[in-house]
Amino acid sequence: MRLHHVQLACPPGGEDVARRFWVQGLGLVEVPKPATLAGRGGAWFRSYDGGLEVHVGVEDPFAPARKAHPAVLLDDVAELDRVADRLEALGHEVDASERDTFPGHARWHVRDGHGNRVELLAARG
Fold it and tell me: Under a CB-based contact definition with an 8 Å cutoff, are residues 114 and 64 in contact?
């Protein structure tokens, strides 16, 4: 058994904000939604290697996930720091207060453009 995708929510019309975070910030690519689901709005994103897929669906009324979150495992701490720099350049506040609290890993927390919590981590070499 393995995880196929994680779904997060956005408000109606929030797709471009999601694209900015997942594509420009994290470097994922947008993949087309199946025609039967495209009319619902939202957007789907996938890592280049296919190891991560995030579906952002429209929810009305919208409430961000403040505690529940996906944890995105990056290849190494250098990549973790590069992604944090990109996200900060895009205006996202990267929280390093728990960077050293997960044994064997470095990590950051950030909120996407809609306030959903996302954890970014990398194994320490």
Answer: yes
